[in-house]
Amino acid sequence: MPDVVVAGHVSLDVFPELRGPVALEPGGLVVAGPARFSTGGVVSNTGLALHCLGVDVRLVGRIGDDLFGRAVLEAFTRIAPRLAEHLVVSREEATSYTLVFSPPGVDRSFVACPGANATFTAADVAHSQVAGARLFHFGYPPLMPLMYAQGGAQLAALFERVRRWGAATSLDMCACDPGSEAGAVDWEGVLAATLPHVDVFAPSLDEVLFMLERSEPAATDRARLARLSGRLIDLGASVAAIKLGDRGLYLRTSSDTRRIEAFAARAGVDAAAWRDAEVMAPCFEPSAVAGTTGSGDATIAGLLAALLRGADPLAAATAATAVGACSVEAVDPTSGIPPWAALEARIGAGWRRRDPAIELAAAGAATTAALR
Question: What are the structural domain ranges in the chain?
Answer without folding.
Answer: 40-93+115-363
